[in-house]
User: Fold these one by one.
Assistant:
Number 1:
Amino acid sequence: MVKKLLHTRMRVNDIERTAKFYEQALGLKVARRSVSPRGAQIVFLATPNSDEEIEICQLPNSPSVQVQPDLMHLAFEVEDLAAFTAGLEKRGFKLSDGPTPTGSGSTIAFIDAPEGYEVELIQRAK
C-alpha cells in the first residue's frame, strides 16, 4: 500500500515558459530544479497548503508535446473565484471556460497552461 502522493509529472515543450505561467498565473513557487541522468530539465513546483508537488519536465530531442483535449487537468481551490479571475486578467491571463456554477454549489472555471494542459479553479460552496 502506498503512503501518499508525492508529485505529478507533466512533460512540456518549454520549461521556462511553463514555470513562469504557474508562478505568475497561479502563484506557485519553484521548489527546486535539476537535470535527470537522461538530460531532462526538471522543475518542481510547490503548491500552497499541500505536500504534493507538480513536476514539469522537458526532455531533450523528444517529439513535441501535443496535449489531447480533456486528457488531464490539475484542480486548485480558490477562495473567491471572481477576485482570482480579476487578478489573472490584470496579469494578462484569460479563462478558457467558465465560471460555471455546479450542482453542488461550487463554481468552477478553467485556464489553459502553455502546452494546453487544463487548470481547473474551484470556489467551493460556502
Number 2:
Amino acid sequence: MKKFLIVTFFISLSWMFTGCRYNNVNVDNGIEKFFKENNISGTFALLDNGHTTFDIYNLERYKDSAYSPGATFDIINALIALETGRLKDENSIIKYNHDSSSASLKNVFEKNNDTAFASIAYSVGKDTLQFWLDSLKYGNTKIKSADEYFWLNDSLKITPDVQLGFIDKFYFSLFPFQKRVQKIVQNLMLKENNTMYSLSYKTSVHYDSKGRKIGWLLGWIEENRHVYFFVINAQGDSMTEAALVKTLKEILVYKEFMKGDK
C-alpha cells in the first residue's frame, strides 16, 4: 500500500503561481526507497495538469536548494537559438570544436553535448542570452559569459520548484517564443510514445564547483489526454543519467502510471 502524508500548508510555486499559494500537498515518503535503491539522494515532485494534486518527496530540497541546470538548460539554449534565427530547425547543423566537429540540433540535444551547446550560446551572444533569461525569470538569471558553460559552472542556478514551473509553461507553449519554436523543442524531448502513454523528458548529470555530482530529470507524461509534470533533482557519486531514468520510471509505476488507465 502506498504511504503518503497529506499535509495542509502553503507552498509557493514561484514560477507558475507568482503571488499565489498552493495547498493540500501530498508528501510521499514512500518514494525514498527508489532513490536509495539507485544509490542517489534528492527530491521528486509530480504535478497534474489541473494543479489539483501535487505529490512530493523531500520538500526542503525541492523548495530551497538551487543548482546549476546542467544539460536541462539545452531546452532554453535551443529555444533562444531557434527564435533568434541562429538555428532553423531540429536538423540544423552545429559546428563545434573549432569547426572540426558537427552534428544536428536533434543529435546534440539527445546526447547532452555541452561543447556543441557552448557553440550555440556563443553564436547567440551574451547580451541576447541575458535578455531572454531576464525576460523568462529563469533561475537567478546570472551569466558570466556566453562561452564559459555558465549553465554548468554554478553561475546560473535554479531550484527544482522553478524547474517544475518552467516545464509546465513550456509544455503549454506559454513562453514569448514562436509556437513553432516551442513545438520543435518539445518534440526533441519525446522519448516514448505508444498506445498507453507518451513520455518526454530531459536529463542532466554534471559536477558542481564543490565536486558533487548533480543530476536533473524533468518532463511530463501523458495518459488519456491528461498530462502530469515531474522533476527529479539528485546527487550521488555513482549517479548516471540511466539511473535517473530508472528512478523516474519506478516512481511512475509506483504512482500507477504507464498502464494507460491513469
Number 3:
Amino acid sequence: MIDFVKAHACGNDFLILDEALAGGAHAALAQRLCSRNTSVGADGIEFLERRSNGEFYLRLFNADGSEAELSGNGTRCVAAWLAESEGLKQVALGTLGGVRSCRVIGREGASYLIESEMGVPQVEARTIEIPGVGAVAGAVVNVGNPHFVLFVEREDFGAHGLSWQELGAKIATSPLFAHGTNVEFVQVRSATEIAFRIYERGCGPTTSSGTGTCASTSASMALRGTARELKAIAEGGAQRTVWPTNDAVMRLTGPAEIVCQGKAFQVNAAVAGKPAVVLF
C-alpha cells in the first residue's frame, strides 16, 4: 500500500508521497494517481525525500508523467503538510529549481498561510514566432522553472484571435522552448493588482500557480512599471508577491490547505512498464 496526502493551493492540487515508496515508478504513479476520472486526481505529485542529514528534498512529476523543476504551490502544500504533521513552522525544501524556504504566518483549521522565498526572477522581453499565429510579444521569465508571459487586454484573456487555452497550448509545446514552458496571460488592472490565467506545462489549464504568480508579477514589475508589491488574482484566488529590486529575492504569500490522507493499493496491471496503482 502507498500512503498519500492530498493538498491544494488556490485549487492547484497535489498529492504528496514519500520518495521511498515510489520504487522508481515516479512517472507511472503520477499518470495513474493524477487521473481525474479514474483515480484520486491532481495536477501533480510531490515526492518528499527526508535525507540522512535532516534536509528535505522534493521531486515534482506532472499529471502527464513529466518531471518539472519545481512548483511554488506544490512546495507550499508540502510545507503545510509538514506543519500539520510535524509542527514545523519554517522549513527549507530542496528542488531541482533550487532551495525554497517556507514560513507559516497564519493558520485556520487545515488551511495555512505561507510565505515562501522564491529566488531571484530573471525577466527578458521577447517576441516569439508561433506557426499559424505569427509574432507573439511577451517575456521569458525564469523563477527556477520556465515561463512565457503575455500581457493581454481582452476580458476573457484571449489573444491573437485565440482563447488563452488554445494559444497557451501552442506556446507551451513550441520547439522554441527545449523543455516546454508554462504560459501566463496577464491583465494589469492597476499599479498594485494584476489578474492572470495559466497554461501549465505537463498539465494544461490550472486554477493557480505559485511560480506563475511570480513570473506574472515580476514581468509586470520589470516591464510594466507596477508597484513592487502586487496582488495577483487567478481563477483559484489571490496571492501576493514582494520584489524590492530586480536583483532581490522574491517573496510569495498564499494559502495551502490539507484536503485528505489515503492509501493506494498495488494491483497487477501495468502502466508504462511499471506496477500500476488504483484506489479502492
Number 4:
Amino acid sequence: MNVDLINHNRHKKIFWYSDNQLKLHEIKWFWLKLGGIILGLLVFCLVLVFGVNQFYYNFLHLGNSRLNELAQENRMLRENLRNLTSELVDLKSHLDKVAKQGDQLRLLVDLPQLDNETKVAGTGGAVNELLFSGISGQTNQLLQSISSTLQSLNSEVRVQAQSYSEIIRKYDSNKGLFAAMPALKPMDGFYSAKDFGKRMHPVLGIFKAHEGLDIINDVGTPVAAAANGIVQVAGQSGGGYGIVVVINHGYGYQTLYAHLSKVLVREGQRVKRGDLIAKSGKSGLVNGPHLHYEVRHHGVCRNPADFFFDDVSLQEYQRQLLAH
C-alpha cells in the first residue's frame, strides 16, 4: 500500500491516499502529533546532552578526586615506610646490645666470643627486585631498603639465637661440672699444702709418693663429701688406707677419704657436697688420727689444696646452705 500525503489547503487538513482502497484518509490532529514528535525529540536531545555532560563531569571530577586520594595514600605510605625504617634502625641497635651482652655471657660460661664474620654470616643478601617491579620512585627504594634490613636482622637474630642456645647448654654443663668439682675441704683440721708429693713416710721411714693431703684432727671428727657424686666404695680397703670411702663425682673426678673410724654411707648412694659420709679415725697404716684425702681427675692424682675454695670450713659451708 502506497501512502501519499496530500495537503488540502482549503481546510488546512492533511490527507493520505491509499492505493488499495482508492480513497483519501484524513490525518487527524496532524500538527498536534507533529508538534508532539518534535517536542519529544527536543526533550530526548536535551536529556542526552545533559546525560553526556553529567557523565563527563562525574568522570573527570570523581577521577580527579580518586587521583587525589591515591596521591594522599601514597604520601602516607611513604611516611609510614620511613617510620618503619627508623624503627628497624632502633631494632638493629638493640640487637647489637644483645650481641654484646651475649659475648659477655659467653666469657662467663667459658666460651669464646663470636667473631665479626660469624655475627654477620648470611647477612646482606641480594633483594629480589621482582617483588617491587611494579613500584617506582621513592616507594620502591624504601621497600628495597626495608627488605634488605629485614634480611640482615633475620640472619643476625638466628646467629644470636644459636649463640644463646650454646650459652644455655654450656651453663647447664657448667652447673653439673661445678657440682662435681671437689671444691670443699671435707673435714676441719690442720693440713699443709706441701704435704702432697714425695715425702718421708711417717711409719715406714722411707721416701714414698703421698698422693693426697693429711688433715689432722681428733677421732670422730665429721667428714663430708667434697662434691656431688655416687659412693663407689664404703668400708675396709684391705690395705694401708684402713676404712675408706670413695666417691665418683663424674666429669672425671673421684675423691678418696681414708683412715676413717666409721662410715655413714653405703655403696651406690648418691650424695651432695657437704653431706656427712664418715667420721675420721686412725685405721690402717698411720701414726696418729687424721683424714687422708685424695682427689683424682681422669685417674691422675691432683693436690687437693688446689681445689679448696678459699679454705671454706665445713661448718661455714653447711651453715650457709641452711640459710638459703
